[in-house]
């Protein structure tokens, strides 16, 4: 009961902070993390244990699957150089830079210093998504950051595992070299087995439950086999998505998206709040004489982490594209590089990896404090200033979505018209004419489209009111009411402009 009461307290705190975040326009990961630290030092604050391995499986696995499922391999192919530069080279550079500082300034042994560098190197996928969701950032930047977040954790955790193994055992395990390809193979194989065994559950609530169960199970299996759990989940998600896009019904796909979005958001909220609560536990491990030297090292590590990413992104942009585009385009690319470089918030992977450091590991307390400083520092420093930065450098609003959306919609409508024109009956002709009207609106020739939308929404509003009146007068049963309400919901969603379909986080 005590655990349930603590969890309930956490839930109330999270809801209140999400409201605050929404009202002040601040990204919720930053608000939750800061508030978690403040609440953690209060006398009545609940105590929360934090199993690092459980945290990675519970919080990271579903977030990775949710992101990877929507990330098409063609996008990875289109931006692979940029993603490789961030997910591999940026992680390695950060690891080396932080390792050098920790070794020469903090006196940390080389392998332990490399472990510290690796665990603070990867930016957090959930934090980046939350920050970018409210900003008019170019779609290309979002795609690159999403692709980076699918791969950088794997790079960092592989280096971290190798460094810890070297420090504890005195030798590097050659089996770690095979951890990445073996993980990808494992993900693909499990995806094939999953899609075959769950074909009868695919369009049921059991299928949604199975997707969660297999995700967590795959993570645990990869950990037991000592391969990259991150890459296994990413490979699994991309493979399943490529198979199910034709076989899943629209009803279950919409339901599954809603369930996964809500579940991942809930886990992210809990994770960011819990990270703030960890501050008290970490400080409690330090002796009075260790506090200030450890704090100084942590601040230096934070500065190095931020500067290395910015310097690398700007240098990479200059070497790869500078000199080829026109001057105006060069300026736009530099602005894009600044945004990508500044979007380096760390999160749960960094914190969980730091807490998984063995008890007998040298400088364990200093490493954990440095990790906490990097997580909280980047969430506050970069998270709260990202929006002002975008406004300050005047990043051009990306208008490509609407144009690309209209072109794609026109293409699918033309396919429908072509199909119906081959059917020789009156109903097909009427339906084809309906699609021609929609096509005219899609390509911008129909200026009355907005008017028709508003009229349809007004009509649906009138039907909703009548349906409500019928229920209040007991003229219909509840099952009839809910069936018609669902029908009106679908009609309203279909008639609403895309801007009205977004669900806010707070």
Automatic annotation (TrEMBL):
<feature type="transmembrane region" description="Helical">
    <location>
        <begin position="54"/>
        <end position="71"/>
    </location>
</feature>
<feature type="transmembrane region" description="Helical">
    <location>
        <begin position="369"/>
        <end position="390"/>
    </location>
</feature>
<dbReference type="GO" id="GO:0005886">
    <property type="term" value="C:plasma membrane"/>
</dbReference>
<dbReference type="GO" id="GO:0051453">
    <property type="term" value="P:regulation of intracellular pH"/>
</dbReference>
<feature type="transmembrane region" description="Helical">
    <location>
        <begin position="227"/>
        <end position="245"/>
    </location>
</feature>
<dbReference type="InterPro" id="IPR018422">
    <property type="entry name" value="Cation/H_exchanger_CPA1"/>
</dbReference>
<feature type="transmembrane region" description="Helical">
    <location>
        <begin position="174"/>
        <end position="197"/>
    </location>
</feature>
<keyword id="KW-1003">Cell membrane</keyword>
<feature type="transmembrane region" description="Helical">
    <location>
        <begin position="149"/>
        <end position="168"/>
    </location>
</feature>
<keyword id="KW-1133">Transmembrane helix</keyword>
<keyword id="KW-0739">Sodium transport</keyword>
<dbReference type="GO" id="GO:0015386">
    <property type="term" value="F:potassium:proton antiporter activity"/>
</dbReference>
<feature type="transmembrane region" description="Helical">
    <location>
        <begin position="336"/>
        <end position="357"/>
    </location>
</feature>
<dbReference type="GO" id="GO:0098719">
    <property type="term" value="P:sodium ion import across plasma membrane"/>
</dbReference>
<keyword id="KW-0472">Membrane</keyword>
<feature type="transmembrane region" description="Helical">
    <location>
        <begin position="83"/>
        <end position="105"/>
    </location>
</feature>
<dbReference type="Pfam" id="PF00999">
    <property type="entry name" value="Na_H_Exchanger"/>
</dbReference>
<feature type="domain" description="Cation/H+ exchanger transmembrane">
    <location>
        <begin position="13"/>
        <end position="391"/>
    </location>
</feature>
<protein>
    <submittedName>
        <fullName>Na+/H+ antiporter</fullName>
    </submittedName>
</protein>
<keyword id="KW-0915">Sodium</keyword>
<feature type="transmembrane region" description="Helical">
    <location>
        <begin position="295"/>
        <end position="315"/>
    </location>
</feature>
<dbReference type="InterPro" id="IPR006153">
    <property type="entry name" value="Cation/H_exchanger_TM"/>
</dbReference>
<feature type="transmembrane region" description="Helical">
    <location>
        <begin position="111"/>
        <end position="137"/>
    </location>
</feature>
<feature type="transmembrane region" description="Helical">
    <location>
        <begin position="204"/>
        <end position="221"/>
    </location>
</feature>
<dbReference type="GO" id="GO:0015385">
    <property type="term" value="F:sodium:proton antiporter activity"/>
</dbReference>
<keyword id="KW-0813">Transport</keyword>
<feature type="transmembrane region" description="Helical">
    <location>
        <begin position="257"/>
        <end position="283"/>
    </location>
</feature>
<keyword id="KW-0406">Ion transport</keyword>
<keyword id="KW-0812">Transmembrane</keyword>
